[in-house]
Design a protein that fits this description.
single chain; 194 residues; alpha/beta; Rossmann fold; 2 domains; 5-stranded parallel β-sheet; 4-stranded antiparallel β-sheet; 9 strands; 33% helix; 22% strand
Length: 194
């Protein structure tokens, strides 16, 4: 299987290189910002960081060549790649999404089971309702965890000296998705209206 990575984040490449020790028939190619590798190899999967305009342009070019190319878009924020929404991408473009940072289990399972796994985010109504995946978002922060019952993002005392920075990052994500919140107990974040 040939996999093309279009991402400047070396961690994604490192993860896929680790997976080639398990899957001997996986060949990993990286893009130099052009379609050279895509055109020179029969690519089975494209993994692309969707957070830069240049990569969005490359994705459009790939789709113009092969609209049904198996594609996994990755980014640190939830953003629809098409105005028509997630289900349109899944059915029309054969596309799935992973939220960064990527872990080895998630990427492996998605590649191995691409045809049967639905995009985790496809039921989110244009990403306005992030409750189904908020725990996935929060697991990327060392100092916080999500309490689904109380809809509270709780600070885990003494876990990180960077908890203030993480708190601001979480608030930024909530604002990007129009989620109202209030700060309680100094560092906990209570989501309102989800």
């Amino acid at each position: 299987m040939n996999i093309l990575i279009i991402d400047s984040d070396k961690e994604v490449l490192n993860i896929l290189n680790q997976l080639t020790t398990i899957e001997n028939d996986w060949n990993i190619f990286t893009s130099d910002g052009t379609l050279t590798q895509y055109k020179n190899h029969n690519i089975d999967f494209v993994l692309i960081d969707f957070s830069t305009n240049s990569n969005k342009i490359l994705l459009d070019k790939i789709i113009s060549i092969n609209p049904t190319q198996k594609t996994i878009t990755m980014s640190a924020i939830l953003e629809c790649s098409e105005a028509q929404g997630c289900n349109f991408c899944i059915t029309t473009y054969n596309r799935r999404r992973l939220l960064k940072p990527i872990d080895i289990k998630s990427i492996y399972e998605l590649i191995k089971n691409f045809e049967v796994l639905q995009c985790t985010y496809s039921s989110l109504n244009g990403f306005q309702n992030i409750e189904p995946i908020i725990s996935d978002i929060i697991k990327n922060f060392f100092s916080y965890e999500y309490d689904k019952d109380s809809k509270t993002i709780r600070y885990q005392r003494n876990h990180s000296i960077h908890h203030i920075t993480e708190m601001f990052e979480i608030i930024k994500i909530l604002k990007e998705h129009n989620i109202n919140y209030k700060i309680i107990n100094d560092y906990d974040i209570k989501a309102i209206g989800i």
